[in-house]
Design brief:
alpha/beta; Urease, subunit C, domain 1; TIM Barrel; 2 domains; eight-stranded parallel sheet; four-stranded mixed sheet; globular
Length: 430
């Protein structure tokens, strides 16, 4: 690959100012300087003329690979929209899949499908086969050592192929691998408190997890209630716990549009307080929570997820509605959609950063552009977003120029670093 040189790129800083720089890169970023970069080797010079340069967005959880018969087409269709929307890395949870990743054999098959069909890079979450007790802890450790981004635990389970783990079984698992940095995600609620997902049943499940966890990092893929967010933030200094909010959930509340499902949203009535959490950097990450096909109904509607149709503009929505219109710091928006997810998945600084040795995953953003969503806002007008994606680069290659079809270049990515929050204090945003 011939090296490329971005001239006159603007990147975010920790203040409201932007920093103008030059970047030399091939598949990875080679050098960043505010001064002219001289290179003796052939180089393709690209003058960004002051355009905003952002890291590719990172989504910590998707559920695309459901039907093994259509894995290839589903991966193609969803990842194509993702790359056009600036999401250069997805992480597949596959909690509805007919091909669970229980072991190395399944991992090999799924990895090959990702390499063959995905437009963006993809990490993978694994699962626990309860029927393999007491050996499932060995399988979990083998998957972790193979580079998966985490192990997904579910209660209840929406998938007959993946049995739910009771809290006692989860405790046994934590005790068996307490000295590992294995990241676990928990999707579900406490059935002893009720047969529907709500703030009370989710909060009860979180507290049971906290009483059982050892040194294990825990991540909650979808939190919907203000009090639950406040509780997690209150214990996060003592426990390695993180959470994500669904962009679609917040988009529906923020723009007062018709929602796709009936999942209760407890921050709906406390939007001003929620905006203050955003301003003070107390929301860890956002995710699209995409589910390729609607496959479950109540009582497990937390697994319904969001339609992939919003992937193509959800990153722009975050920048338009939060940064441009509500003055949430740009650095905060980037951390919630790129840096923090990459850190939690153990992919940082390979992903989610604009730093030497990071993958050259870039989104060139036109601050003055406009993006049409095709959706209606609360006043019955089409929701037009402030800003537009001009181009997307994946590992140094221009894969989308803002028009037409993108170039397919995605592949499976392995976790390389610890996902523990205390090991991820530094930021590329200075």
């Amino acid at each position: 690959m011939i090296m490329k040189l971005f001239k006159n790129a603007c990147i975010p800083t920790s203040s409201s100012a932007l920093k103008r720089i030059n970047i030399l890169f091939d598949e990875q970023i080679i050098k960043i300087s505010k001064d002219e970069i001289l290179c003796e080797e052939p180089v393709e010079v690209i003058d960004l003329e002051g355009a905003l340069l952002l890291p590719g967005a990172v989504d910590a959880h998707s559920a695309i690979m459901i039907d093994p018969e259509s894995h290839a087409s589903d991966l193609e269709n969803v990842s194509r929209d993702a790359i056009c929307g600036g999401w250069t890395t997805l992480s597949e949870m596959s909690f509805h899949t007919g091909l669970p990743c229980f072991d190395g054999s399944a991992l090999k098959k799924i990895k090959a499908q990702i390499d063959d069909s995905s437009y963006c890079d993809m990490g993978l979450w694994g699962h626990i086969d309860v029927d393999e007790y007491p050996y499932y802890n060995e399988s979990a450790q083998d998957l972790w050592q193979s580079g998966l981004v985490g192990i997904l635990l579910m209660n209840p389970s929406p998938n007959p192929k993946i049995k739910a783990l009771s809290f006692t079984e989860i405790m046994d698992l934590f005790l068996d691998i307490y000295d590992s940095d294995t990241l676990f995600a928990f999707q579900g609620f406490d059935l002893e408190e009720g047969d529907d997902f709500n703030a009370m049943t989710q909060s009860s499940a979180i507290k049971k997890l906290l009483r059982r966890m050892q040194e294990n990092p825990i991540h909650l893929p979808q939190v919907t209630d203000f009090e639950v967010i406040e509780f997690i933030n209150s214990v996060s200094k003592r426990s390695d716990i993180s959470f994500s909010l669904s962009i679609s959930d917040f988009m529906d509340v923020f723009n007062n549009v018709k929602r796709e499902n009936e999942l209760p949203l407890g921050f709906e009535e406390r939007l001003p307080e929620f905006m203050e959490l955003l301003r003070t950097n107390k929301i860890y990450m956002f995710s699209n929570n995409v589910v390729c096909k609607p496959v479950v109904k109540k009582p497990a509607d937390i697994f319904l997820g969001a339609s992939p149709s919003r992937l193509i503009y959800s990153y722009v929505w975050m920048l338009s509605e939060l940064w441009k219109k509500k003055n949430i710091p740009l650095a905060t928006c980037i951390k919630m959609c790129s840096e923090n997810p990459a850190k939690r998945l153990g992919l940082y600084p390979q992903k989610g950063a604009i730093d030497p040795k990071s993958d050259a995953d870039f989104v060139v953003f036109d601050v003055d552009g406009k993006t049409s969503t095709g959706e209606m806002d609360r006043y019955g007008n089409e929701l037009i977003l402030a800003g537009a994606i001009k181009s997307v680069y994946l590992r140094g290659e221009l894969v989308y120029d803002g028009t037409g079809l993108p170039l397919r270049r995605g592949h499976f990515v392995q976790r390389k670093n610890s996902p523990k929050r205390r090991h991820n204090k530094s930021s590329w945003i200075s």
